[in-house]
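Hi R.,

As promised, here are both runs. First protein below:
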Amino acid sequence: MSDPYLWLEEVTDERALDWARAHNGVVAERFAAADRFGALERRILDMLDDDAKVAYPGRRGKWLYNFWRDAEHPKGLWRRTTFEEYAKSAPAWDVLIDVDALAAAEDENWVWAGANVLRPAQNRALISLSRGGADAKVVREFDLETREFIAPEAGGYYLPEAKSRLSWIDLDSVYVGTDFGPGSLTDSGYPRVAKRWRRGTELSSAETVFEGESGDVSVVAGYDRTPGYERHYLARATDFFNEQVYLLEKDGGLRHLDVPTDSDLSWYKDWLTITLKSAWDIGGRSYPAGALLANDFEKFLSGAREFEVLFAPDAHTALHGYGWTENYMILSTLEDVQTKLYVLTPGADGWTRRPLADTPPMATTGVTNLDPLESGDEFMLTTSGFTTPTTLLASSVGGATTRLKQETAYFDADGIETDQFFARSDDGTMVPYFVLRHRDRKSTPGPTVMSGYGGFEVSRTPAYSGASGMGWLERGGTWVMTNIRGGGEYGPEWHTQVQKANRYKAFQDFAAVARDLVARGITTPEQLGAVGGSNGGLLMGVMLTRYPELFGAIVCQVPLLDMKRYHLLLAGASWIAEYGDPDKPEEWEYIGKYSPYQNVRADATYPPILLTTSTRDDRVHPGHARKMAALLEEQGHTFWYHENIEGGHGGAADNKQSAFQAALIYEFFTQMLFEGNKSR
């Protein structure tokens, strides 16, 4: 059947923008005009702008880089300092780029999108800037000594707005993938061609080193500059979860690294490491999905296929990540969604393993700022819990651990307790979830909001959220974080169980948690809200159309909703490996059963829903949320719609916009779940 709302896919068409602005006005009048909303928005903005919040650094040798936003610098400052200075209570920062000043001087709505610093000299950087927060970026070369951008006519690297990749080889050459013209991008809008570009030459004359196919997700080229182990490499992502990796030989030839295409491949000096996403039978042995394997790189290249197993999963434990110091590997695991850390030491007789540090329960502890080439065996730790602000520590393998910084507590957590429960899904799978609530409210069902994602092997772990504390927990609400299938909390099979035709199991998991919350007396269907964004927005759309009786209100952020056309919009084609191809009748057969846009019914009773998106989101098309809102409106359902005219996939371009978005969500849930039907 024809789609009467295709016109809402025209992102910047004035008719579509007028439609969005009209709905924004309704939202502002209903939710943003209240004194309660303004007070919460100010508190959240004060938190985001707080000069006392931790400036999380990225270590590059002696320098610690940081991107910082506050009330005086809403677009932000890119700056750096030394480790010794950073350890002080009030470190002195060397500001490299003031984005607010830059945007004003150039009359552009620049949003910071990252920096790639040339190592080891650290005298140049490739700066990415986005107009309004989009994924597409402008890339410019910056001189860290003169504090100026180097103009193209002066030999500086420059790429116009596109979804580009630009990485250093050395001062006078880079690898580049960008929009070189017709046929140079994949169907997903990412680079299909990788080239070597030498300083002082036109981009059009850059030398092609690798090409993928139009149906690929992307290709990438890079350079490992580890002294004595320099390697040029290329990768072709054939879909979102599979890639082929090659070494680029001196004669220009390619050497394929023959490992499973769905594995994660890495190397450091003499060691090749492989994280398996599916079982692998090789060299007379069988290695399970989720295992981490190691081999001598040169022996592997010579044909050796005997691997040492550095980690093997079990029913409760999965690999969360790993990284190298100069002499050790640090391993992070999730044991029922709670982190444990270990040190692995390679030796002549194999690898040894020991605990790195005690990690608190109901919290996430991560290892950051591993810099094996310039910082030896030093690293940093971050520890964060639902009610415990993040602590940043400095340490080294075998050395002392010292606390560097700790975040401010932004809400009253006194009496707030965290419990972990497990719900039984329809197929018997036990699905974990965390519940935050005040101890005095455990005896009575109350307003509750549950969040979910469930896709792309993204693991959701405990973390401090000042906004949810201020906006929900302090009001007496209960907050729930779910760990449904589709994530990586129990390894790759937790994800692959719900790909494509089995997607419905992720939805069943979320619904099972909703029912379990009611069965435990934590809430009632009328008092239960749900929130999710992006892939989690798809989850919310399915909850609305398939499980409406379970919820009293839903917030659906930057969502995928029209699964008939998702692969035709922006980066959608890159997600076919996750959802399936709706152009294939046998795959649309299962996609069409849950696609929210195609399953809205005029005679159904739905809970109130708030849909939010961003005009400048060039990853998930705003047309998904626009068309869903228009269809709900046509059929007379209760909905609200808000579109940020900038902000990208994150939904906000600065702290003020982030504060508004957060306050809007909690005000919506407060009116719907605390105040109930009388406010609808």
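And here is the second one, sequence first, then its structure tokens:
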Amino acid sequence: MSVDATPESPFELGADGLAKLDAIREALLDPSPRRIGRLDQWGLADEYEVYAETAGYSEVSLTMEDGTVLDASLSVPKNLAPGQVCPAVVLPAPLISIGHRAYLGMISRWAKGGYVVLAYSQRGLAKSTGEIHVAGPRDIADATEVIDWLIQQDAVDPDRIGFFGASYGAGTSLLAAARDQRIKAVAGASAWADLFASLYENGTRHLKAFEALVQLFGEDRCSQEFRGIIQKIRANTIDDEVREFAEARSPKACLKAFNDAATPILLTTTWHETIFSVPAVIDFHSRLTGPKTLLVQVGDHGNAELPGLFGLPAKPTDMTYRWMDHHLGGSAGDGETPRFDVRSEYMFNPLSDLRHPSWADYALPKKRLHLADAASGQSDGQLAEGAATGWTRSVKATGAGTDIVVAPQLVRTGLAERVGLPHVYKTADTDRSLAAVFATAPLERAARVRGDLELRVTVNAQQADATIVAYLLDHNPATGRAYIVTHAPYTFTAEQAGRDTTVAFPFQPTDYVLARGHQLQLVIDTHDPLFAAPHTTTPVFTIDITSPEGAESYLDIPLHPIA
């Protein structure tokens, strides 16, 4: 989020961002010269003078059928002709303490495009009453009641309603669109598609992200059902109740409804997303048959759309304005017709802009690099073409791992990537007793990794519930500096302990350009704080990584030279 006056939570805004939103809110509520003049320090005074002439803003309380009161705001265009109606966009809030006020910076743009705007905080969040259900059935019923209230407003065209949300609001927007056919278009920034895959990747909990989100929710505000799920995830009790809880909150479960209604859906995510599953979003997008667009950008959760929420240029919000204009008939965008394709940036270059008709066209074909023993005179293993068997690399699982991690900080590491400052790893310093390292020879030509990757590896872990974390790094031998390309964890079951087990699992997809002379390094570690807290009471045990005949270890990777 904001890099100024860094807040305690990675999901909260900095002091300057909050001050800006407060000033915008005051100018919307009281468009006097004094209030609007305060916006001069951000260069926004002229914009909100125009807003005051074209639309009116108010804060409202929406009472749901069960008595829950949702905190909301409403913006309505002025000077409408008798009987004139406008398209409307509904904005369920992201998971942030200020709730729906996170969207204040967008309201002027929507208003200039002729939209009625209703933003609201979901039950249990910010100033809304009730308990938090995590985009559950009660939250989706609320969305329907919000629409019921909205269409009673004189200026609203009930046949032209769209939903846009960021993060938590994206999930609610998608699930509401699946269940209420009055929603004619939906856009979700930093969206999720499969909540279970986001919580539990390859048998491994995303514990750090989960605990950060729970802290932001506030456990005392959560429903009894959700509090029970929290305790089960903490205890690593992943049973049918947890699966059913996640399934009811996963847009992928609504695929038939989306396709039957041909709902127009815009989705955005990031390559280095640490909160939600990127493969699940890509798979969901690929299986949609209606109008659709997918945007994948540099950074982590919420990074790319943040400027847009403040009213600044940003691909996720700029594409959303164009998307809603096309499907609802407003004029908030740039007047261009939206593209129905896959749009992306490559790491770590947010100025790049690639377009392909579909993910199948976007992803490059895979080639196979086998994990092999060290070459003569070398200590690290190799990534090379041609099967290699008969070797074993042993690493110690101590409950702490090495200094190679997915992201030293949730959200903020990705934000640094967006400004060209990716985290630097010094793999020469990595303790080889705690991690196995395999590397290609230095590349003779620059190359690109673009698409899906999969690692197959044979492992013998001496303890049940052992975890390995695989990292693919871009290493410059001349400087010793390395940057993360992608990663994936895998946790073994109790039944797999103490015997050779061959597993294949996907990495997060990526789009990465490697310079000539660089190497790809595959590092297999046993712990990452993203997936588990350090546990110093666990006895040290050994994990053997092998490549037996008939079950060779390899990496399938879309690696291709750049012409």
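A quick note on the second one: The two ends are 37 Å apart (CA to CA). Let me know what you think.

Best,
J.
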